[in-house]
Specification:
The protein has helices at 9-16, 22-34, 86-99, 170-180, 194-203, 210-244, 246-259, 264-271, 275-287; strands at residues 43-46, 60-68, 73-79, 114-120, 135-141, 148-159. The protein is an alpha/beta fold.
Length: 295
């Protein structure tokens, strides 16, 4: 017995965004947003995921959207690999969900709060002090006093690589489920119990049709390929750096990552090179016929 990977488009939407996902999503959001307080008694999943054959693997999975029983709008996104200006894109999508509520002739009092929950399979906010809290929250606050200007916009980020070894919170267990479910053949002991029974039942590959299984496997392989390309590019650059010198090694690492399809900002973060240097490498690649793919 195996389970679909919640980090893929198919797996994430099957578990959290399908017509059978309401109790799962309610428990998940209570844990992530409200520290497992049962604040959400009910919710409605907007456009539940019904047609897995229409989807292919995307680096970004936007759009499980739900309306809570207090009319708060929640948008949930799973991000597999880092992309350029990702935090800014999350801000944009959250603001767009907020302003798009108003219909012609309606006033601002009709606006309802919007919460974005963004799960990343990479470290989005590196910490210099060793802080490993996987969940961070952002609101509109006064920079001096911390006073809240408005509670209508909240950004919640959950970074899977920051999960601690000791899982003490329900929110951490849910993130561990997302991180590990696609890698195990049986339910981990730490995830046994009613909170996760429904999630594992939906993720169980034995419940998939042949078409769904093939799609889930195809997406899993694409995910592994994308992660492997990034790891290989970094490793190749480091090895060349040992032989050729640190600077040249970083340049070769940048070249490998750019050829693998990573964006300039991600390459800058991974290598420490300036944007100008990485863009120069990208321009050299574009002008070198050996790097052009005839297909």
């Amino acid at each position: 017995m195996g389970f679909v990977d919640p980090r893929t488009d198919f797996g994430f939407k099957r578990i959290f965004g399908s017509s059978r996902s309401k109790p799962i999503l309610r428990k998940f959001l209570n844990a992530i947003i409200y520290d497992n307080e049962p604040r959400i008694a009910d919710l409605e999943i907007i456009d539940p995921y019904q047609n897995p054959d229409l989807y292919s693997l995307k680096q970004s999975i936007l759009d499980i959207k739900a309306v809570l029983d207090d009319e708060t709008i929640v948008i949930i996104e799973m991000q597999i690999l880092p992309v350029e200006a990702f935090a800014e894109r999350v801000v944009y999508n959250t603001a767009k969900a907020y302003v798009s509520q108003l219909k012609r002739g309606e006033g601002y009092l009709c606006l309802k709060p919007v919460i974005s929950v963004t799960i990343t399979d990479f470290v989005l906010f590196p910490s210099d002090d060793g802080e490993s809290n996987p969940i961070t929250r952002y609101q509109l606050l006064d920079a001096n006093t911390g006073r809240c200007c408005s509670d209508h916009l909240e950004l919640i980020f959950a970074e899977l690589p920051k999960l601690p070894e000791q899982l003490d919170k329900r929110s951490e267990l849910w993130l561990y489920f997302i991180q590990q479910a696609g890698k195990v053949d049986q339910v981990p002991e730490v995830l046994t119990g009613s909170d996760f029974d429904d999630a594992f039942a939906l993720a169980n590959e034995s419940q998939l049709s042949q078409e769904e299984y093939e799609l889930a496997e195809k997406q899993r392989m694409k995910l592994l390929d994308a992660q492997g390309q990034m790891s290989y590019a970094i490793k190749e650059g480091i090895e060349q750096g040992i032989e050729q010198g640190i600077e040249q090694g970083l340049i070769e690492a940048a070249r490998g990552m750019l050829l693998a399809g990573l964006d300039v900002e991600t390459v800058c973060r991974a290598t420490g090179l300036t944007q100008a240097r990485v863009r120069a490498v990208a321009e050299a690649i574009a002008q070198d016929p050996r790097d052009q793919n005839p297909d």
